[in-house]
Amino acid sequence: MAPQRRRARSRRLTVLAAAVTASAALAAAPEPAKEPPPFGAFLDSGPIGVARIAELSHWLGGTELKVAHTYLPGGRWQDIEGPPGFLDAWAHWRRQKTDRTLVLNVPMQERNEEHVPDDQVRSLLRQGAAGQFDRHFRALAERLVALKVPDTVIVLGWEMNGVTYTHRCGPDPQAWKAYWNRIVTAMRVVPGQKFRFDFSPSRGRDAVPWTACYPGDATVDIIGTDSYDQPAGMSFDEQVKEPYGLQQQVDFAKSHGKPVSYPEWGLFRNGDNPEYMRRMLDWMDEHRPLYNTLTDYCPHGVWQCSANPESSEAYRSALYGR
Fold first, then answer.
1. What is the pLDDT of residues 105-146, one digit of tens each?
2. Where are the domains of the chain?
3. Residues 6 or more apart in contact with residue 69 via CB below 8 angstroms
4. CB–CB of 178/185 below 8 Å?
5. pTM of the model
6. Thinking of the domain 35-319, which architecture would CATH place it in?
7. pLDDT in tens, 20-35
């Protein structure tokens, strides 16, 4: 073989060997950790909840929490308008980075956890549908815009399909839907607002099917669900497949062209259940909700609840360093 041809053949072999080596190195290298869907945790309603966001991030090896979640008190209307100073720390956290999200649960009625009987709830819903409470929600919208958090996600009248809250839907679903639409309209007319409204029932049928409460695509931006590990003995697969369960939420949202969310989720009736924790995290990795926020206090949580060590390890392992 001529020297020139031998040199050319040698160069080709060298290039081929380098390509094989690079291909083998790529095959052996671990895949980079997948970015989790935007997530956070409910850590406390007040300023201490904001301070704990950085602590939880540190516990997760620096994985950044991009969602902060708090609740307006529902004692009196002045609370629902946003008590002076209550939202300041949350708004400051949101404004620090453009890719952060503030999630705010907003009651639709005062005396929201005072076990108001159905006949009174029915009357209040009808009053709301007639516009009697519009001014309170305009005041809240104006406060949020003034705090420079006009893109806050509003979880309005959450778990309306249950019996816990005065803003429940069951006593008069038609009035409830009309009232929801009235609130959204009142808040959207405030100049500068960019709110997104999250319709978030509890998973499953509860007292009434949550589909009976759905107020329509024009006033709903996100289809959420509050999904805890309950009732006792129910597997994760059953939570997915049950009527009005996780799969129906995803299918309903898709059919209406809406993203999903999980404003509240966590452990509950089945105790320290790492299988639930892993499956729920996998479910969210698959379905990519707009956001999710773990309820992180006992019995639901993992970081602030020492009663769930195995689930705590499952949560931390899944999100550590991502």
1. 999 999 999 999 999 999 999 999 999 999 999 999 999 999
2. 35-319
3. 40, 41, 42, 103, 104, 105, 263, 293
4. no
5. 0.90
6. Alpha-Beta Barrel (3.20)
7. 444 444 444 455 557 8
